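Contributing new records

If you add data, match the layout below exactly. Sequence lines come first and carry their own label; structure lines follow with theirs. Keep one chain per record. Anything else will be rejected by the validation script.
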Amino acid sequence: MHLEIITPEKKIFEGEVSLASFPGADGSFQVLNNHAPLVGLLKAGVVEYKTKETTRSQVKITGGVVEVLKNKVILLADGIAV
């Protein structure tokens, strides 16, 4: 599936991933290929994703919104925590 992580300042990541985990407002959740459509509110925490090359990466966000639709995942993050 295709993942984009975007902040108001810049695009953080764009590429194919096999899974993505998000810090949901009501608890963490994971998205895999062919996931049902979803729009979710995110709290501050760590977004983790695994690329097709089995590389795991993490991004700390300050909150945001994620949309999952037809194997495309778009994360609009409020900002990146340092």
